[in-house]
Amino acid sequence: MRRPWHLLLGVAFGLASAFSCFLAGIYFQHSHATRQLQQLIQQDVYAYYISPKIFAVFSFFSVANETSNNMQRIMKYGFPGLDDVRLYSDFVLSYDRRNRVAHWVCEHLQLANLQGARGVGRAGATYRPDLSVPSNFRSTLADYKHSGFDRGHLAAAGNHREQQVHCNETFLLTNIAPQVGQGFNSGAWNKLEIYVRELTQNFGSVYVCTGPLFKPRAQGNRKWSVEYQMIGSSMVAVPTHFFKVIMVESRLPLGKPYMEAYVLPNAPIPDQSTLRDFLCDIREIEHFAGLHFFQGIRRSAIFGSNYPSESQVFRDFA
Ligand SMILES: *[C@@H]1O[C@H](CO)[C@@H](O)[C@H](O)[C@H]1NC(C)=O
Ligand SMILES: *[C@@H]1O[C@H](CO)[C@@H](O)[C@H](O)[C@H]1NC(C)=O
């Protein structure tokens, strides 16, 4: 039987040249494509989910851009929600246009974020409206003035001391919410922020997600109502509560992360109460906020903590 060797050769040659064209195509197209991909990720957070795989392919030729790396680092365990997601230089935020406060703010804290450089700090920063929010949905300095409420940070200024621009961005009003000053912002909430920094000092890598809650009150007969104030002519909503969901990464390779959450009422909290009094089931926060935290990890892999007993953590830090 005669072999159609010329046919085989033709096919092989065709495949080889197609493959080399493909490689050349990747080589010449990659910078253009990565740029497009980065734009896509900024515009469409769904693209984030597939981006690591694609970047892994492109990284053969080029190093991925710092901005996209930041988003991937901070949001490594997933987005709690996808409403109006905004990437800042050291935190990621989802903005609630109706309430003029964030839905959530996510941070990834490492020692470098806290230690900071010389002269970097809140002294060099001022509160200012975020002009990237359309003006009819934006909160302003005038809204907070004489309102009786503090301009409370969601991502704490003290967590972002590596560069002045990081610290400055925590003063944008998108990262600010009306908080009771005495006994809350300068009391228990401040203690919680310090606790998060202590966790970072001790464990090196902490993910924290912070946001407001508008909790309903029972009216009887299985009915509920939500009551909250609004301030200023933009009507910035005053949250009834604030939450922090904290995930501590293990220092051990393949070690399980440890996760805990707090809900504090936006009200004066007596000095003698401890953080432990405000521990809260993460599912309860999810229920009231309509968010889902760290969905990149199975819950069963989180609640089994690294520590011999939960109380050990509280003994050390609370
Ligand atoms: C990284 O990508 C973003 C979005 O495409 C762009 O705005 C930024 O300038 C890029 N940064 C660098 C250092 O290339
Ligand atoms: C930080 O904000 C201050 C005051 O608004 C400003 O003078 C300074 O230039 C800003 N620094 C950076 C690095 O953005």
Automatic annotation (TrEMBL):
Keyword tags: Endonuclease, Hydrolase, Magnesium, Metal-binding, Nuclease, Signal
A Pfam family: Endonuclease_NS
Transmembrane segments: none
Record carries keyword Hydrolase: yes
Cofactor(s) required, per the database record: Mg(2+)
EC number, UniProt record: 3.1.30.-
Start and end residues of each DNA/RNA non-specific endonuclease/pyrophosphatase/phosphodiesterase domain: 87-300
Key word Zinc present: no
Active site: 153 (proton acceptor)
Binding site for Mg(2+): 185
GO terms of molecular function: metal ion binding; nucleic acid binding; RNA endonuclease activity; single-stranded DNA endodeoxyribonuclease activity
Extent of the signal sequence: 1-18
Tree of life domain: Eukaryota
InterPro entries according to UniProt: DNA/RNA_endonuclease_AS (IPR018524), DNA/RNA_non-sp_Endonuclease_sf (IPR044929), Endo_G_ENPP1-like_dom (IPR001604), ENPP1-3/EXOG-like_nuc-like (IPR020821), His-Me_finger_sf (IPR044925), Non-specific_endonuclease (IPR040255)
Residue ranges of domain ENPP1-3/EXOG-like endonuclease/phosphodiesterase in the record: 88-300
Record GO biological process: apoptotic DNA fragmentation
GO cellular component: mitochondrial inner membrane; nucleus
Family, as annotated: Belongs to the DNA/RNA non-specific endonuclease family.
Designated name of the protein: Endonuclease
